[in-house]
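Fill in residues.
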């Protein structure tokens, strides 16, 4: 049975966060995200900018786990929860904003 490695777990989760948030930022900025079609151009840029900033938080986990630096890993753990809460709040605001509009259908 393989031994559980916390460093590998942190590396995998932080890499996943980095790739996911970068993908959402790029897809949103290019206008391919169907859940943000109703947003104006400045809001679209702001939404993708927030995801791009959140993607940088994954770097602390990648660097910390690959170099065995516990200070960076603990910073990543704190920042990961902050990013998750921040992105959840922003997505909730986006949903509420879309239903407050007169046309709340997605084309």
């Amino acid at each position: 049975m393989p031994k559980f490695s916390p460093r590998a777990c942190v590396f995998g989760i932080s890499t996943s966060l980095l790739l996911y948030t970068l993908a959402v930022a790029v897809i949103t900025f290019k206008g391919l995200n169907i859940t943000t079609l109703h947003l104006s151009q400045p809001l679209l840029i702001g939404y993708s900018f927030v995801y791009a900033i959140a993607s940088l938080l994954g770097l602390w986990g990648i660097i910390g786990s690959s170099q065995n630096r516990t200070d960076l890993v603990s910073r990543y753990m704190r920042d990961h929860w902050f990013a998750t809460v921040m992105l959840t709040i922003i997505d909730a605001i986006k949903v509420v904003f879309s239903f407050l509009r007169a046309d709340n259908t997605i084309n």
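The helical segments are 6-29, 41-56, 58-66, 70-100.
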